[in-house]
Write a structure and sequence with these properties.
- By secondary structure, this protein is mostly helical.
- It has one domain.
- The chain has 7 helices and no strands.
- The radius of gyration is 17 Å and the shape is globular.
């Protein structure tokens, strides 16, 4: 009788490795948002390009959970990140989806610009609403706006360079 060996999909194995990295980077690094965010967004580009979309949701959730658990991103106001977690998850998924969509053969750099803009807009408008309601201070407008756009852009470029090396 033959035994059947089911091979594990390559994208699942890669997804697990990238998931460990994307979770631990914000958990372990106390660096500025621009550095940590750039690395996380680069990993999101790699994940979106190299893994099946069915693995994206948990991988999109891990970096913000790591940052929240680390507790240093916004100092004593890190607990306010809890309000943003669902929007960050949706923003990461949106970023990954737009990066991988092929709009009439747009180059990756154009897709990164679009993805970064959508992600930053979603997070900025969420921060704007929370700020208007008195939930978060004005510093979150910058952190969830222009900083998100820059880290998504830089991460997209870094991810694109890394993909050429992979």
């Amino acid at each position: 009788m033959k035994s059947i060996v089911v091979a594990q999909p390559k994208s699942l194995t890669l997804g697990i490795m990238l998931g460990m990295a994307i979770f631990t980077i914000p958990l372990l690094l106390a660096g500025p948002q621009l550095i940590v965010g750039t690395i996380v967004n680069a990993l999101l580009v790699i994940i979106a390009t190299k893994t099946a979309s069915k693995y994206w949701l948990p991988l999109a959730m891990l970096p913000s959970l790591g940052a929240f658990m680390h507790g240093v991103l916004f100092g004593p106001l890190t607990f306010l990140l809890l309000y943003f977690l669902p929007m960050i998850w949706v923003g990461n998924l949106l970023y990954m989806k737009v990066v991988t969509m092929n709009f009439g053969n747009w180059p990756l750099v154009v897709r990164v610009i679009a993805a970064a803009s959508f992600k930053a807009a979603l997070l900025f408008f969420s921060a704007r609403i929370y700020h208007a309601w008195g939930i978060v201070p004005a510093m979150f407008l910058v952190a969830m706006g222009i900083n998100q756009w820059f880290t998504a852009m830089a991460g997209g470029i870094l991810g694109k360079v890394a993909l050429k090396k992979i």
